[in-house]
């Protein structure tokens, strides 16, 4: 890795997390306290009054409208006695039939999670995860109560914020589907235990639980209580994990297991979810790389297996650019919408716009090309070394095609003349590492 590889883009990604401890294995030693259900990351705008001379007049009502989180909406609906009617229209049977039909191909990399979500009336995460539990024989093996399982999955799905353009239950369902595809890969499937599969699916389904739709730097600079609670380190990931543990306990899904096993499960789910912190990617990647260089990964070893599952979940989490263009493009639009929304809030409240969040200077194509070059390609390159299968080749194939497509969009935009942002051109030269910049 040359100094040149430390691109402007990477610097942007890291700019706000420099003070953060870089220990991959960092985790609270304070046991496994959960976060109270309903302790959603509500962002209190009053804090901007206290330490800033800029007068922001925004009523509590407006604040709620601005960042009205899933939980708030549902509880207020509940208290006002409004229930969301169960849609029982004549088309439901037909949709159910089509959704069931889709589940027969749940291991297919082209699986269209957006269509599946529409066919299940917004219940993709519950339907898909329940199906996978069944498919992997987990219900039988762990003697799970299917009512408790369904209730647990409904709570998980509800604790995602449906108003987030990207970090919502559909993303969680997509990651869970990808994880399932990786679990089926020959190297993994022959060595994984039912326990490993159970943890992988739960971690995938819960890995972004109660995501507020803003990133860690935002929580830090607004003095959000979660940033304080987790000492500015893997703030969101810690919150997702603790929220997942809270729901596991509340559901009683594993109440019939020994306390020791439940604690082991909670801590191992934490290891998986914490691995999805993108700011720690280099640490995980270099560990992965040195294992592959030494050829010393032994999947009979539980620690090695769990390391591979961490890598698999990381891949599943950022696999959007490895899907077909039709799916990949939709994800790109959604994630950019969420970034730009954060940028809009930061502008409005004079918080300083976070990297990649400024709709005036960034474009979807630039963001995607940077993301692919510096995060997705290195990760999936190593993954293909580990698991050199047709799926890995398919994913790398889509990745290459999608990148070419975004470059086409980029050329079109810069070719159109007039309104080319200078930052855009600067970035364009930054994110093309294959150009002979060493000479
Ligand atoms: Zn995610």
From TrEMBL:
Active site per the UniProt annotation: 167
Describe cofactor binding as the record notes it.
Binds 2 divalent metal cations per subunit. Site 1 may preferentially bind zinc ions, while site 2 has a preference for magnesium and/or manganese ions.
Q: Which Gene3D superfamilies match?
A: 3'5'-cyclic nucleotide phosphodiesterase, catalytic domain (1.10.1300.10)
Identify the residues that bind AMP.
167-171, 208, 317, 368
Q: Which major enzyme category is it?
A: hydrolase
Q: What residue spans carry the Acidic residues bias annotation? A: 418-429
User: Which family is this protein grouped under?
Assistant: Belongs to the cyclic nucleotide phosphodiesterase family. PDE7 subfamily.
Q: What is this protein called?
A: Phosphodiesterase
Taxonomic lineage per UniProt? Answer: Eukaryota, Metazoa, Chordata, Craniata, Vertebrata
């Amino acid at each position: 890795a040359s100094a040149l590889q430390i691109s402007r883009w990477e610097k942007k990604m890291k700019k706000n997390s420099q003070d953060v401890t870089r220990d991959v294995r960092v985790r609270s030693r304070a046991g496994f306290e959960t976060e109270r259900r309903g302790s959603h990351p509500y962002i209190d705008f009053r804090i901007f009054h206290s330490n800033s001379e800029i007068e922001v007049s925004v009523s509590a009502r407006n604040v709620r409208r601005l960042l009205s989180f899933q939980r708030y909406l549902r509880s207020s609906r509940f208290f006002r006695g409004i229930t969301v009617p169960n849609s029982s229209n004549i088309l439901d049977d037909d949709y159910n039939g089509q959704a069931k039909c889709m589940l027969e191909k749940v291991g297919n990399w082209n699986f269209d999670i957006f269509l599946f979500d529409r066919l299940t009336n917004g219940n993709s995460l519950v339907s898909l995860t329940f199906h996978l539990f069944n498919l992997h024989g987990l219900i039988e093996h762990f003697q799970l109560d299917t009512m408790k399982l369904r209730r647990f999955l409904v709570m998980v799905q509800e604790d995602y914020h449906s108003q987030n353009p990207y970090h919502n239950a559909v993303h969680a369902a997509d990651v869970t589907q990808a994880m399932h595809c990786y679990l089926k890969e020959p190297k993994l499937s022959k060595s994984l235990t039912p326990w490993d599969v159970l943890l992988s699916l739960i971690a995938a389904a819960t890995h972004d639980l109660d995501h507020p739709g803003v990133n860690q730097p935002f929580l830090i600079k607004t003095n959000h209580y979660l940033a304080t609670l987790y000492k500015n380190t893997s703030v969101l990931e810690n919150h997702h994990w603790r929220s997942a543990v809270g729901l596991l306990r509340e559901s009683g899904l594993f109440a019939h297991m020994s306390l020791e096993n439940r604690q082991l499960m909670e801590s191992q789910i934490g290891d998986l979810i914490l691995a999805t912190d993108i700011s720690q990617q280099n640490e995980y990647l270099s560990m992965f790389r040195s294992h592959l260089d030494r050829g010393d990964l032994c999947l009979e070893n539980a620690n090695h297996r769990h390391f591979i599952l961490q890598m698999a979940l990381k891949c599943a989490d950022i696999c959007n650019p490895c899907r077909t263009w039709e799916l990949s493009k939709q994800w790109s639009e959604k994630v950019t919408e969420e970034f730009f929304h954060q940028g809009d809030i930061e502008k409005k409240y004079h918080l300083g716009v976070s990297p990649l969040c400024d709709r005036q200077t960034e474009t979807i194509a630039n963001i995607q090309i940077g993301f692919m070059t510096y995060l997705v390609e290195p990760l999936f390159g190593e993954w293909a070394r580990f698991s050199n299968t047709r799926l890995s080749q398919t994913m790398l194939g889509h990745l290459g095609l999608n990148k070419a497509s975004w470059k086409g969009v980029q050329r079109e935009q810069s070719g159109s003349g007039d309104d080319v942002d200078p930052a855009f051109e600067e970035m364009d030269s930054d994110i093309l590492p294959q150009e002979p910049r060493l000479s």
